[in-house]
From TrEMBL:
This is aromatase. It comes from the Eukaryota. It comes from Monodelphis domestica. It is found in: Membrane. Heme binds at C437. It is an enzyme of class 1 (oxidoreductase). The gene is CYP19A1. The lineage of its organism: Eukaryota, Metazoa, Chordata, Craniata, Vertebrata.
Length: 503
């Protein structure tokens, strides 16, 4: 009622004012006019979204993000207001977009190379103007990104295939380390260890305690996820964020010891060219005064967490999906046998594994790990007819886009969705353009090598009730889903033995 009263479209104000006004009426009228002005703010935007309602709208929309989680809130708003809509986060206008044409425009153009997130939250996790993933200072990001691109593509990639293969074999040989007394394995942990080991061997090269670091990485993700969109007021109450601060410190301290060891080795080793990996390049850049020590440490941290974060969960989802779809498993195994036979996988095989590739793509489409991308507009622009002001925050809801456009059976897991060539703009699990995933090529090769190595040795079966629907329900579709912890166990049955009956 109050909101309606304040709406000039519904009432004729002159009719509401009696001829002889009592003294108190004037201030009330002025206040009403002021509120009307504030109220009318919402109508200035052409973009659909909830109303401003004297500042209540921004509070409610940010509250919804904190309450539902980023992924669920984005899906809620897109469903409610359409695939190009506007909310507020931390009082700032934020677009949520799940339309392929708009997404393509944003990913392609260089005036969207920045991201957004709570400055205090990013400071707390060490990402504010440091590292690459959430570095929102375009000049600094531009200086750092080439270190990542160089390490994750080109000739280094060929050498890494042997590293990934060997690491997977070694970890599969000691499967008992992640298996409980009933024979079920904590597959996500297994994958995290493989990813951490391969990243470390190829990018830092200092022996580490995998188990301890994997646990610290998970806590770091929890902190990242929890703090990314927190309002500033949250950081005024220290006991609220203390535990996150501690998780961040734990990982940073553990990695600092390794990085110091690397610095020491570089300063004492004569054959420097043999150790010119990612970490060495950064340490030398620090020596030249191009980067700060803090930045070098953060870059190494981000490089070491990137694969255990994304790839391990993606491969874990793939194993769940293959366990549920025997026909897909059959097609994948047939191709592996035809292309590779009994020998070890080589880089030349990777391109020929087309069914495996479709399986990977369909898994990433159907059960994504990263389904949201955050960007910021650095210039005024017009996207699909909507004016977008400089400074606007943008969330690209890729997970939703992958279920809305192009695919013949969007809500089913089927290789038919990739039977035909899928135009670039309709499938973007890694993003693209200047700020796209720096590890997209390496990730595809890694997933193929690891999947092929696991599947040739083992048939995978899940615990009864360990099904994706439950994970999907629980999972917030967040940047770093951790809600899968209740549903982790799978059993690895060596090939050539009888399949277990589902219990
Ligand atoms: C299944 C695996 C992976 C998925 C689905 C994935 C997805 C993504 C997405 C969607 C982004 C944001 C892109 C954008 O803003 O347009 C991103 C950024 C990034 N990814 Fe990946 N990623 C994966 C694996 C990896 C791996 C293995 C690495 C490195 C070892 C990596 C390194 C990075 C980096 C450094 C960025 C930040 C790039 C920047 O801001 O300049 N990713 N990833």
């Amino acid at each position: 009622m109050i909101l309606e009263m304040l709406n000039p479209m519904h009432y004729n104000l002159t009719g509401m004012v009696p001829e002889a006004m009592p003294a108190a009426t004037m201030p009330i009228l002025l206040l009403t006019c002021f509120l009307l002005l504030v109220w009318s703010y919402e109508d200035t935007s052409l973009i659909p979204g909830p109303g401003y309602c004297m500042g209540i709208g921004p509070l409610l929309s940010h509250g919804r993000f904190l309450w539902m989680g980023i992924g669920s809130a984005c899906n809620y708003y897109n469903k409610m207001y359409g695939e190009f809509m506007r909310v507020w986060i931390c009082g700032e206008e934020t677009l949520i977009i799940s339309k392929s044409s708009s997404m393509f425009h944003i990913m392609k153009h260089s005036h969207y190379i920045s991201r957004f997130g709570s400055k205090l939250g990013l400071q707390c996790i060490g990402m504010h103007e440091n590292g690459v993933i959430f570095n929102n200072n375009p000049a600094l990001w531009k200086a750092i990104r080439p270190f990542f691109t160089k390490a994750l593509s080109g000739p280094g990639l060929v050498r890494m295939v042997a590293v990934w293969y060997n690491s997977t074999v070694i970890h599969l040989d000691k499967l008992e380390d992640v298996t409980n007394e009933t024979g079920y394995g904590h597959v996500l942990n297994l994958m995290r260890r493989i990813m951490l080991d391969t990243s470390n061997v190829s990018l830092l090269g200092i022996p580490l305690d995998e188990n301890a670091i994997v646990v610290k990485i998970q806590s770091y993700f929890d902190a990242w996820q929890a703090l990314l969109l927190k309002p500033d007021i949250f950081f005024k109450i220290s006991w609220l964020y203390k535990k996150y601060e501690k998780s961040v410190k734990d990982l940073k301290d553990a990695l600092e010891i390794l990085i110091e060891e690397k610095r020491h080795r570089l300063s004492t080793d004569d054959k420097l060219e043999d150790c010119m990996d990612f970490a060495s390049q950064l340490i030398f850049a620090q020596g030249r005064g191009d980067l700060t020590g803090e930045n070098v440490n953060q870059c190494i941290l981000e490089m070491l967490i990137a694969a255990p974060d994304t790839l391990s969960v993606t491969v874990y989802f793939m194993l769940l999906l293959i366990a549920k779809h025997p026909k897909v498993e059959e097609a994948v195994m047939k191709e592996i046998q035809t292309v590779i036979g009994e020998r070890d996988i080589k880089i030349g095989d990777v391109q020929k594994l087309k069914v495996v590739e479709s399986f990977i793509y369909e898994s990433m489409r159907y059960q994504p790990v990263v389904d949201l991308v955050m960007r910021k507009a650095l210039q005024d622009d017009v996207i699909d007819g909507y004016p977008v002001k400089r400074g606007t925050n943008i969330i690209l809801n890729i997970g939703r886009m992958h279920r809305l456009e192009f695919f013949p059976k969007p809500n089913e897991f089927t290789l038919e969705n990739f039977a035909k060539n899928v135009p670039h703009r309709y499938f973007q699990p890694f993003g693209f353009g200047p700020r796209g995933c720096a590890g997209k090529y390496i990730a595809m090769v890694m997933m193929k090598v690891i999947l092929v190595t696991v599947l040739r040795r083992f048939h995978v079966q899940t615990l009864t009730g360990c099904c994706l629907e439950r994970i999907q329900k629980k999972n917030d579709l967040s940047l770093h889903p951790d809600e899968t912890r209740d549903f982790l166990e799978m059993i690895f049955i060596p090939r050539n033995t009888e399949k277990c009956q589902e219990q």
